[in-house]
Design goal:
The complex is a heterodimer of chains A (272) and B (124). Chain A contains five helices and six strands; from the N terminus they run αααβββαβββα. The N and C termini of chain A lie far apart (190 Å). Chain B starts with a strand and ends with a helix. The chains are: A alpha+beta (272), B alpha/beta (124).
């Protein structure tokens, strides 16, 4: 074999080697391609499962956790709403209790004061104070029934002249009729009212059980007081009963004191 | 516990009792009562008070004179004063405020009114 032939054989050998390497490389590329395709299919499956809520355990757990947290959040929101509603309810109840407390305080004090004395003039003064300070009346009078004449006569007043009050027969006019029936009278419309001593805005019968001993008549309230509150009606009810007993007992006490003093004077005269 | 000393100067026993009744709802409050301005000044000199409630119309010495005397006395000039007035007597009320009264409540009195003004001035 000549040198030329040897060179050609050598080159052919080299080419064959290179070709083999190329074939191996191509083989590797095909394998890698196969592997990557397989991986791609795997990932596509995973992606598909994830998107469709598939069976990936981590994803399932996460979804359960999210659902649980959502439920807890809703529960908390519902609880907050409930607490807010309860707060509003408590605030309303607090206002009601304060109003009730104010009413009870007024009634307690009025009742306490009415029965704190047996002096007739003091009792009238206390009734006057209650009507001014607790009800808020500026012009009013207290009229008592004379059982002999069956007439109502003013014994005390505020903001008016005592002498200006008419003597009213039981059953006559608004005052007389209210006293005869033992009811309370409230004018329908206080706006535009002009004082008329025989036609008050309020007339309260002072009663011991069904026995009327007099009336309280109101003609004018304080400027800031345009209408009566619930507490006022409670006070009127209290005055109707307690003021009547206080007036009646103090009158009886005064009479008994006077009689006792007369008898004592008589005994002293007899024994000296 | 903090204690607050309050002087109530009012000639009407009904009103005095109502004010005292309302003030007793404030924790730690100690109340002293006086029947007129002179009695109020006597009580004022015997103790140190955090708040004074005073009526305007009183016998012997009225509320306006009392406010004036309190504000002119260095010992009590800073004690808050609440006047008890009637709505119609706005001139008296304005005079009381001009003389140095801090606040006022109008008749007919509500216990809530008394409590609110007392808590505000006592910072209770």
């Amino acid at each position: 074999m000549s040198d030329k032939d040897e060179k050609i054989a050598h080159k052919a050998e080299e080419f064959l080697q290179i070709f083999k390497k190329g074939a191996d490389f191509t083989q590797d590329l095909l394998k890698e391609n196969e592997r990557l395709r397989f991986r791609l299919i795997e990932l596509e499956d995973v992606f598909k499962n994830t998107a469709e809520g598939g069976h990936d355990p981590d994803s399932q757990q996460m979804k359960l956790k999210i659902a649980e947290l959502e439920r807890e959040k809703q529960e908390i929101l519902d609880r907050i709403k409930q607490v807010e509603d309860e707060n509003i309810d408590f605030a309303n109840r607090y206002v009601d209790i304060e109003t009730e407390n104010n009413m009870l305080a007024n009634l307690y004090i009025a009742s306490y004061q009415l029965h704190s004395t047996l002096d007739f003039r003091e009792v009238l003064q206390i009734i006057t104070e209650i009507v001014i300070n607790l009800i808020g009346a500026e012009e009013f009078g207290i009229m008592l029934l004379d059982e002999k004449t069956n007439k109502l006569t003013a014994v005390s007043c505020e903001g008016l002249e005592l002498g200006a009050f008419p003597s009213i027969a039981l059953g006559n006019g608004i005052i007389g009729k209210t006293a005869k029936a033992g009811d309370n009278y409230f004018i329908d419309d206080m706006e535009g009212y002009e004082r008329d001593l025989e036609h008050p805005i309020v007339c309260i019968s002072l009663k011991i059980k069904e026995h009327v001993i007099g009336v309280i008549v109101l003609y004018k309230l304080f400027e800031q007081k345009s209408r009566f509150a619930d507490v006022d009606f409670e006070l009127f009810t209290l005055l109707a009963g307690h003021a009547a007993t206080a007036i009646f007992s103090s009158k009886l006490y005064s009479e008994s004191e006077r009689k006792l003093s007369t008898i004592q004077g008589f005994i002293d005269l007899m024994t000296k | 516990m903090l204690t607050y000393k309050v002087l109530v100067v009012e000639d009407s026993p009904t009103m005095r009792q109502l004010i005292v009744f309302a003030l007793k709802r404030i924790r730690g409050v100690v109340i002293t009562e006086a029947g007129d301005g002179v009695d109020g000044l006597k009580k004022l000199s015997s103790d140190k008070f955090d708040l004074i409630f005073s009526d305007i119309n009183m016998p012997i010495m009225d509320g306006l004179k009392l406010v004036s005397l309190i504000r002119n006395n260095p010992a009590y000039k800073d004690v808050p004063i609440v006047m008890v007035t009637t709505e119609g007597a706005s001139e008296d009320r304005d005079r009381a405020l001009a003389l140095g009264a801090n606040d006022y409540i109008t008749k007919p009195i509500q216990t809530t009114q008394i409590l609110a003004v007392a808590k505000k001035l006592l910072d209770a």
